[in-house]
Known about the structure:
- The chain is mainly beta.
- The chain has strands spanning 6-9, 14-17, 24-28, 35-39, 46-54, 58-62, 67-68, 74-77, 85-96, 102-108, 111-112, 138-146, 156-164, 169-173, 187-194.
- The strands form four sheets. Strands 5, 6, 9, 12, 14 and 15 form a six-stranded antiparallel sheet that branches.
Amino acid sequence: TTAGDVVYKGASALTRLAKGTADQVLTMNTGATAPEWADAAGGGKVLQVVKFHTTTQGSTTYNTSDTAFNPNIEKAITPIGSGSNFLITVRWFGECEETWNCVVNVLRGGSRINSSTGLTGLCAPFNTHATNFDSTPDIITFTTLDTTGSTAGTAITFQLVIREEAVSRTLWTNRTAGGGASEKGTSEMIITEIGA
């Protein structure tokens, strides 16, 4: 035997299984009569993590259509694998003018993921004082899984958007409306590529 080899009991005697190659795993053959080496399945393996993080402050007027935040909260990822899933985690800090009837979504290449059209969303801003938009910060935080798949080497852009039911409203990213100099925060989007 050689270092790394495996010895197992065969049908009538001890049998040597030569060591496998890097990243292979020990499995049973299709007849379930002997062990063999096989390439590890890729499913569920984290392939890469990318992050967008901003401290920039800005304001956005949003209405009844999906509207990008200012600063734009988006991140491109170039998939390592084909058929990958993407775990998207969002944290936004800021202030919304009356958070009634507004929702946030994530776009992938301009199309919503995990949410239908209209006033449905992945999350709504959290605000304990819906009309007190000059002092109490709002927070948006959620995680969603995009299972649309991917093509290795073809970049995908994910973008955070917001919309309202009937009127135009304003939001302030990384600050509050009345406390821009003193009440600062940060916002981020983290994308994890998970192998198929």
